[in-house]
Amino acid sequence: MLSSAVTMGQLQQSMDTISHNMANINRTGYQRREDSFSDLLFQHMEHQRVPQPEGNRLTPDGIRVGNGAGVSQTALRYDQGAIQETERALDFALMETGTFFPVQTEVDGVTEQAFTRDGAFYLSETAPDSDLWQLVTREGDVLTNGDGEPFVVPGQASDFTLHADGTLVADLMEGGTATLGELEVAAIERPQLLEAMGANLFQLPDLAEIDVDEADVLGFDVAGATQVTQGALEQSNVDMATEMANLMEMQRSYGMHARNITQQDEMMGLVNALR
């Protein structure tokens, strides 16, 4: 009974993960989560104390009495999502897995570096009544280059072009162009280290605590034509059919453990009723 009760709680956590994936199926650049299970603490009991020939027995001797199964890891899956053309100049789709757009976000008033695969950017004033703008995500996080510097856009900018060498150029309304800088993407060598921050953002943990050198994990590359496509967005990598199949599997397992608890409760009631 205890084993089933513990496992039901873990299955509920997995169903919550699946529900979260399904709720974000239309979110640009969303990376799906996937749970993996492992046995909780168990004890191996030798029920056959006197060795006896057991013929063609295929199972190992003894039985394992444990406390059920638990979610051992919730991993991000960085499969490439479908590419949807938008023909919008400030929409950029990442074409390689393990790459992200570097942005700056504020957490409790502190500016921190973060990463996202959502390539839909917009113009935001650098200051009230300013004639200078910067590129931001839909949540207001500032797009930066590899050095953490934002792109400064003149107020007369009317259109944008990403060249094959990664240079981002703005067309000005009165004529001419302005070079904004090189669009760079962050290449994460070990993306499973990333921690979700919410709002489709990720951040690296304190690498010093886990004895990892930042140069071995994080690098920046100029966004060439093979890495980034302008005028398109990467959709989420959630497959509704797969998520529904996983949800049905979790629900059936949950129901099996619920019936197990009910049957054990009935058996205990019968034992207690014996005179």
Automatic annotation (TrEMBL):
Name the UniProt record assigns to this protein: Flagellar hook-basal body protein
Keyword Iron-sulfur (UniProt): no
Flagellar hook protein FlgE/F/G-like D1 domain ranges (all copies): 100-169
Leader sequence residues: none
NCBIfam families tied to this protein: FlgEFG_subfam
Residue ranges of domain Flagellar basal-body/hook protein C-terminal in the record: 230-273
Keyword Signal in record: no
Any GO BP: bacterial-type flagellum-dependent swarming motility
Keywords associated with the record: Bacterial flagellum, Cell projection, Cilium, Flagellum
Domain of life: Bacteria
Family: Belongs to the flagella basal body rod proteins family.
A GO cellular component annotation in the UniProt record: bacterial-type flagellum basal body
Subcellular location, record wording: Bacterial flagellum basal body
